[in-house]
Amino acid sequence: MQLIQQNPDIHAYLASSEAIDHWHPLVQETADALWNSTGDAYSYAEAAFEFVRDTIPHSADSGDMRVSWRASDVLSTRNGICYAKSHALVALLRAQGIPAGLCYQLLGDDDGFNLVLHGLVALRLPGREEWSRVDPRGNKPGVDARFSLDVERLAFPVRPELGEIDHPGLYDAPHPATLKALQESADRPELWRNLPTSL
After folding, report:
1. Global confidence as pTM
2. Domain tally for the chain?
3. Most buried one in 5, 72, 81, 143, CB count within 10 A?
4. Which residues form the signal peptide (predicted)?
């Protein structure tokens, strides 16, 4: 999919913020440990993706009621929904100088009802002209997201006939609608009621 940078400055996709807090010691320590076990940008990006996908359960799968939104909190609590897990992966990528941003799909349940936004990550590795989308949501039966730069292996393919959408925008910071839902929800049931249905 052709992504459209919402900020034309590539350096914006390396910046830190309150949600993408890659200056935080825990983010730095995690990034350094992953880098030391890999040693190059491609292997590091894949390791960071698999770390977030596999060691931080999606709270809907684990039953965790807590709501995390800062990258450092996601890493410390090992908990988060797709938006939060995406914040953690973007922070880990940026911590090692890999441009990364946030992008979104509009997805429904199995019957195509209850459309809500789903969060993804896009990254651009050295020597590549294009951004590549990956989905650190976490695998489960029926979901098999993989790290793949040329052929997308996302958790959920879009079903246009059900009104689902791949949004082309690539954001350097969490979209305000998703961040508001995370910050204003006391627990996951409240978050489920607050999930945004559009950008």
Report:
1. 0.97
2. 1
3. 81
4. none
Q: What is the CATH number of the domain that holds 176?
A: 3.10.620
Unique residue bearing structure tokens 């441009």? 99
Per the prediction, the chain carries an average pLDDT of 95
What percent of the chain is helix, strand and coil (3-state, nearest 5)? Answer: 40, 15, 45
User: CB atoms < 10 A from the CB of 7, how many?
Assistant: 14
Look up tokens 């029926």; give the residue.
142
Percent of the chain past pLDDT 70, that is, above it, reads 98
84/68 Cα distance (integer angstroms): 6
In a domain, 89, yes or no: yes
Single-letter amino acid, residue 153: R
Q: Enumerate the β-bridge partners of residue 25.
A: none
Shortest CA distance to 197 belongs to which of 126, 123, 68, 107? 107
Q: Read off the pLDDT of residues 52-94 as tens digits, 9 standing for 90 and up.
A: 999 999 999 999 999 999 999 999 999 999 999 999 999 999 9
Most distant CA pair in the chain, distance: 45
Quote the domain boundaries for residue 189: 4-194
Tens digits of residue pLDDT in 10-51: 999 999 999 999 999 999 999 999 999 998 999 999 999 999
